[in-house]
Design goal:
By secondary structure, the chain is α+β, with helices and mostly antiparallel strands. It has twelve helices and 14 strands. The chain folds into three domains: about 110 residues, no CATH class; about 70 residues, Winged helix-like DNA-binding domain superfamily/Winged helix DNA-binding domain (Arc Repressor Mutant, subunit A, Orthogonal Bundle), CATH 1.10.10; about 120 residues, Beta Polymerase, domain 2, CATH 3.30.460. Strands 1-2-3-4-5-6-7 form a seven-stranded mixed sheet, sandwiched between helices.
């Protein structure tokens, strides 16, 4: 569903569930919405984010330009758990399922419990897109033709169990992402669709399992973290994207760290836990050493996923650049 479709569908659902109406107007390149309900006539700035997750909400909150109470988040679907988080953060939103939260005292709108109806033909996530399966998919995408190897080698390379490899490959075949060839070897197919699906599901399916927390450095200059590779770590997200493209100035930093060295990494760099900090630490979930340049950053597919999850327009633009330059050639 494109941004334009998300916006229009959410507006229509809101009108159908309330006595109010959201009228879009174009202000330069920006879209604004006028809420007309009862005696109110309120102008909202609009931020359309296709998909949001628990890990991206706090980042989104920190980037909302003031006045935050006059900004309306428009997204595809807000789960009950996310809805509670958004309400606690006082983030006004509407979604394409018909859920809504607008709190501008004395005006209060709270519509919840609406479920998103998936179109016919949509393939469920299945075993392949559960955490261990996604870990395996990431390994296969980053290592072309690995799927042709014996299953035990794939299991060792990906760091998941042999049974998980067997069941995940069968599910990928069922979903049309893997073909069994005449030479009795598997071959990944429809890689573009596979990468896009993995990217969308990464923030909610895989990242939470390895998320350590958000931190703040004593020294505000994050680039004082020296020799990151020797500490079992790599840059992801905006910092890595900046190194690849020079298109974005990182404000939020994602660092993937070897699980056995997280304590050492935090101590040596004097990072302290802070829910509002601009550094997130995630355990590395892969069991191989990627061969690409520069080695201090994670694979471009993971950078792409990090940026898409941020939801910021500049991040999405940068993600598209990385996709064209670094990922399209893998398909």
């Amino acid at each position: 569903m494109l941004e334009f479709d998300v916006l229009n569908t959410a507006i229509a659902k809101f009108k159908g569930n309330t006595d109010g109406e959201l009228q879009p107007i174009l202000n330069g390149k920006e879209v604004q919405l006028i809420l007309k309900i009862e005696d109110y006539d309120i102008m909202f700035n609009v931020k359309v984010v296709q998909h949001i997750s628990k890990s991206s909400v706090s980042i989104l909150k920190s980037r909302l330009a003031p006045p935050q109470d006059l900004l309306l988040l428009v997204t595809r679907y807000v789960s009950p758990e996310l809805m509670e988080i958004l309400r606690n953060l006082n983030i006004n939103f509407i979604d394409t399922a018909g859920n809504a939260f607008i709190k501008l005292p004395p005006l209060y709108i709270n519509i919840q419990g609406k479920r998103l109806k998936e179109p016919e033909g949509v393939i469920k996530s299945g075993r392949a897109f559960q955490p261990a399966g996604m870990q395996l998919i990431f390994t296969l995408i980053c290592n072309p033709r690995l799927e042709e190897n014996p299953l035990r080698e794939i299991a060792e390379y990906s760091g998941v169990g042999l049974t998980t490899v067997q069941k995940t490959l069968k599910d990928l075949e069922k979903q049309g992402f893997l073909a069994f060839q005449s030479n009795k070897k598997y071959k990944l197919i429809n890689k573009g669709s596979l990468i896009k699906k993995w990217t969308v599901l990464y923030p909610e399916k895989l990242k939470p399992k390895y998320f350590v927390g958000r931190f703040k450095a004593d020294n505000n200059n994050i680039f004082d973290i020296k020799d990151i590779l020797n500490m079992g770590a790599q840059w992801g997200g905006e910092t890595a994207a900046s190194m690849l493209t020079n298109y974005i100035r990182p404000a939020f930093h994602t660092i993937y760290v070897d699980s056995n060295r997280i304590g050492e990494f935090l101590l040596r760099n004097r990072l302290r836990k802070d829910p509002a900090g601009n550094i997130e630490i995630i355990k590395r979930f892969w069991n191989f050493n990627p061969d690409y340049d520069p080695p201090s950053i994670v694979h471009p597919i993971l950078i792409y996923a990090d940026l898409i999850a941020m939801g910021d327009q500049r991040d999405i633009e940068t993600a598209n650049i990385i996709y064209e330059r670094k990922i399209a050639g893998l398909i």
